[in-house]
Design goal:
The protein is mostly helical. Helix content is 80%, strand content 0%. It contains 13 helices and no strands. The longest helix is centred in the C-terminal third of the chain and has 32 residues, at 241-272. 34% of the residues are buried.
């Protein structure tokens, strides 16, 4: 089981990407004081394992379509055993529950989120493709809520951060789908993604206000918004695969860079204090 799980991680959940992602979102969610490092590390471990379990579950659900679209991947090709990955998901879920036994609130949060994704995966095939990103990416939005709950510091800031991340990730998913749709839908989808990026920037502005207008967060938010506007307008003027790739890659950078700035602001704030 663990051999197949490791092969899956290397192919579909690269640590050089996922560890920084989890670290940046989790650290930003405890701005400005960072709280208890023990509780924070527990939260980060839970987030890392949860994202891995959902990545694996999503690939199992999409197995048939992946055999057509990307037959060389480990699961569709049979190089990675589906039974081993199924067992791994149960193992990961059990480990997550065990890690959260220290708090009834976070344990209940995990159970509710697990039930949500159980129903989502069972009903995924019935959902129109255009609205699936809003359901599948919820996990990214709830990470700040979970971290805030874990460190007993849940506040308006965490809900604003949820809206900031969630809208940006949905925009990223829509932009990413440009590679797989007919060119006559490119403009409509690009405009939808652009609207969500601008909406995310609005929530980012709200975060900037409620956190006392942190310098680096505001600076990086402005920079990433400028880049997204430039890339989206370039794609709308001259659509093409290469422009689409740049557009969706910046979907994650759009929220990660400002959050990294917020961490910098937090260290600076603590240093001054």
């Amino acid at each position: 089981m663990f051999k197949d799980l490791w092969a899956f991680i290397r192919e579909r959940y690269p640590l050089q990407v996922t560890i920084p992602l989890v670290g940046v979102i989790s650290l930003a969610a405890v701005y400005p004081t960072f709280g208890s490092w023990k509780r924070l590390l527990l939260a980060m471990a839970t987030v890392f394992l949860g994202l891995l379990a959902l990545r694996a579950a999503d690939d199992l659900v999409d197995m048939e379509s992946d055999r057509q679209r990307c037959p060389d991947r480990g699961l569709p090709s049979g190089r990675i055993k589906t039974e081993a990955i199924s067992r791994s998901i149960w193992f990961l879920w059990g480990l997550i529950l065990f890690l959260n036994l220290v708090s009834l609130k976070t344990l209940a949060f995990i159970v509710v989120l697990s039930l949500y994704y159980l129903f989502y995966f069972r009903g995924k095939s019935y959902l129109p493709h255009d609205i699936r990103p809003f359901f599948s990416t919820l996990i990214w939005g709830v990470i700040p809520l979970y971290v805030g709950l874990n460190l007993e510091s849940l506040s308006l800031f965490h809900f604003l951060m949820m809206a900031f991340i969630w809208s940006a990730v949905v925009a990223h998913e829509i932009a990413h789908s440009l590679d797989n749709v007919h060119p006559n839908r490119w403009q409509a989808l690009a405009l939808r993604a652009l609207f969500l990026f601008i909406l995310s920037a609005f929530w980012g502005l709200a975060i900037w206000q409620v956190t006392g207008r942190p310098f680096f967060f505001g600076l990086f938010l402005l920079l990433t918004l400028a880049v997204i506007l430039k890339l989206s307008l370039a794609f709308l003027r001259e659509p093409g695969p290469s422009r689409a790739k740049a557009f969706y890659i910046w979907g994650f950078i759009f929220f990660l860079l400002p959050l990294a700035g917020l961490i910098m602001d937090g260290f600076f704030w603590n240093g001054r204090g």
